[in-house]
Structure formats: structure tokens, C-alpha cells
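Below is how a single chain appears once it has passed through the pipeline. First comes the sequence as given, then the structure the pipeline wrote out for it. We keep one example in the README because the format questions we get most often are answered faster by looking than by reading.
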Amino acid sequence: MIYKTLGEEALYYRSLTDYRLMPNGYIICMLDGRSFSKMIKNKFDKPFDKYFIKMMNETAKYLCENVYGCVLAYVQSDEISLVIKDTNESDGFFAYRINKILSILSSMATGKFNQLMTLYQLKNHPSINPGETISKMKLCEFDCKCWNVPNKDKAFQWIIYRQNDCIRNSKQQVAQTYLSHNALLNKNTDEQIELLQEQKGINWYQDYSNGEKYGRIIYKEAVNIATENGNTIRNKWFIHDAISLNNEEYREFIKAML
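Resulting structure:
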């Protein structure tokens, strides 16, 4: 090929991997904490830590508020799934350029979570010099994946899949917190929580919140806002503890958000 300028040639090579997702449909973006398991084990309460859950929720909410076209987020453990819907009203979130989506979402989640983690460290170590606390703090990082799904049903299917994983992980976390590895060996998660009930009197179904068992779902709700010109209705993002998506009424309610 013949190029008229150095810049034209340089930009041509840069464009060769500037892939884009397809518009006019649904996009799933999944963010995952890098090496969070070790951090959670060393810093937070078991089996669930309210501060860690809150930080994940607030990070997901921040993404929802700043990702154009986002209609819903599902949060469990150290992962966040966003559902983006193309409404054909604009060029979409960064024109659905994959490099942009992956880099921007990863940096947004990483920045917000580290902001929250800094506040957490300062609150829980008030006697330590703030500068020393922050300088010694290990930074947290998120990776990101994104892909197209053909329709609403497939987008919702992803949320169901992640909730199934959440339930399994939740049962395992509780059982592993109170029972030995040998006691749980060769038992599935339902058998593990049955043994936990028998030996420790801990009931996974009753003793833990819905958010700890089923994850959290973030979506917009209409609220009445007072302004200088009177009250007006606006949509705001709210964090909700999920319940089992096996519940037909709840399943249809969440699906309607997409």
C-alpha cells in the first residue's frame, strides 16, 4: 500500500485490530477482580464481609451510572456483569469499540474500587498515619471481557448462569468456613450445607441475607425529585438484594428491566 503521510500509515496499522461489537442488540460486559481470593482471605471476614459486598455494589453502581446504554448489573463475589442495550439513539458506548470498552471499564472499576478500599483502610486503621496506610496498600485490579448476545433472552440467560454460580459459591463459602476440608470431601454443595446444619446448627437458607445467597441486582427506578421548578420524575440506579430467579414472578420482573 502507498501512504501519503507518516500519520496515515501509522493509523492504518493501529486500525487493523480496532474490532467492534455488533450494534442493534445486547452486550454483556463481565468484570472480574484480579487475584481477589487471596485479598479477601487475608483482609475480610468469612464467610461474607459486609464492607467488601458494599464496595463491590458501589463499584457496580458507579459503572451503571457511567456506561451509556447499561440497563442492569448483576454482582456476586468479586465479579460484576453489565447488560448494555443498544437503543439506536446514538453511536453507542464508545461506538462499541472492543479495545475502548475493555480498557475504560477495567480502569473505571479499578479506580472506583481502590477509592472505596482507601476509605475502608482509613476507617479501619484510624491510629495509623493515613499516608503510611495508603502507601502500603496493595492496589486492586479488574479485568474485563465483553461480547454480543443475540437477544434479551440470551442476556437474561447469562444472569441466571451467574446466579447459579453465586449460589454454589455461597454454599461452599459457608460450609468451608465452619467445617474441615476432610468433612466436606466428595460432598456436593447441598450435602455440605446439610452437614453444616447437622453439626453446627447453621442454616444457610435462614441465617444469611438474600444478597449473600443470591447476589445483588442493580437497576433503575423512577423517583420523585424536588427541583426549583417543582417535583419531577427521574430514573436513578438502586442496589437490590436478589432472590432466586427460579421464582417465576421475580424472573419476569427482572427480565422486564432488560
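The chain has eleven helices and six strands.

See the next section for the split statistics.
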